[in-house]
Amino acid sequence: MKQTDDRINVAIDGPAGAGKSTVAKLVAERLGYIYIDTGAMYRVVAYKALEDGVGPDHAAEAVRTAERLSIELRPGQQRQQVLADGEDVTDAIRSASVTSKVSAYASNPGIRDILVRKQQEMARKKGVVMDGRDIGTKVLPDAEVKIYLTASVEKRAQRRFEELPEGSTTMEELREDIARRDEMDRNREHSPLVQAEDAIRIDSTDMSIEEVTEKILAICSEAIARGVEQDE
């Protein structure tokens, strides 16, 4: 797909393990856009808070941790590099301990407010692909393309299992953890996981990554064409 000056913002939401980050990175690469992994930003906060002994129940202290943090996302050859206060935490934030707690930290409205402001600033100039839980509903409500990407719990657990180091967990533990996170994300008071009214729903259970990517790119092409027509 050719890059255009009529850049748009693309919001990809969905539950844990739906393939959002993988697809978002591919879409950004093909469009020549910037990929912003919001989930990684919440994982950084969880990682740092846990490292400092600040549990999710210590809401005010966790917010102060988020306020002090410098988070940087850098493109890498294989995957995006995540830095926290200059430290490479790309692997550390994907640990089982962080994964099991990140939703609890993400439900803290103070933490969400801090990170949402950072994310909106990143997207101000357009040309970003952002994935998370509330991108289309709260972070980028005016995004030209909104996607809700989902898959069965079994498929999502399988994908996570294949990503993690051998022996670090079991499929059953991952299934239970994903189901628990789904429940927390849907029922949290602030910015729950919901499909935006104008989002296009894609179930990736029986689709390959390339098929999902191509489908989203086609949707983006249509949105860009509409924008060009309106400007003429």
UniProtKB/TrEMBL annotation:
One GO CC term, this protein: cytosol
Gene Ontology biological process: nucleobase-containing small molecule interconversion; pyrimidine nucleotide metabolic process
Enzyme class: transferase
Keywords assigned by UniProt, alphabetized: ATP-binding, Cytoplasm, Kinase, Nucleotide-binding, Transferase
Gene3D superfamilies: P-loop containing nucleotide triphosphate hydrolases
Reaction(s) this enzyme catalyzes, per UniProt: dCMP + ATP = dCDP + ADP; CMP + ATP = CDP + ADP
Localization: Cytoplasm
Residues spanning the membrane: none
Domain of life: Bacteria
GO molecular function: ATP binding; dCMP kinase activity
InterPro entries: Cytidylate_kin (IPR003136), Cytidylate_kinase_dom (IPR011994), P-loop_NTPase (IPR027417)
Protein name: Cytidylate kinase
Gene designation: cmk
